[in-house]
Amino acid sequence: MFEDLRQILVEELRIPEALISPSATTFEVGLDSLNVVMLSTAIRQRTGVRLEPLDLFGMERLKDIAQTMEENVR
């Protein structure tokens, strides 16, 4: 799931790939409140995983988002 997340961050949110690693924080990659809403929508559209923006705000590292995506795959 991390690769799916990486692809979304690069293609949808235009975050430089060099910033994206499992241990990177959401702050380090520049996710603000608007980006978190866009990320939530893109994750749902691309993977079918429903993560609310509020859920994403509580996750500090990208690996946490990817793990939660994996746990919620239908």
Structure commentary:
The chain is mainly α. The protein is 54% helix and 0% strand. Helix 1 (2-11) packs across helix 2 (33-47).
**Amino-to-carboxy terminus distance:** 13 Å
Shape: globular
Q: What does the radius of gyration come to? A: 11 Å
Strand content: under 5%
Count the E strands.
Answer: 0
Number of helices: 4
Please outline the major beta sheet. Answer: none
Summarize the structure.
With 74 residues, the chain is mostly helical.
Keywords:
74 residues; mainly alpha; 4 helices; 54% helix; globular
SSE blueprint and pairings:
Blueprint: H1 2-11, H2 33-47, H3 53-57, H4 62-71
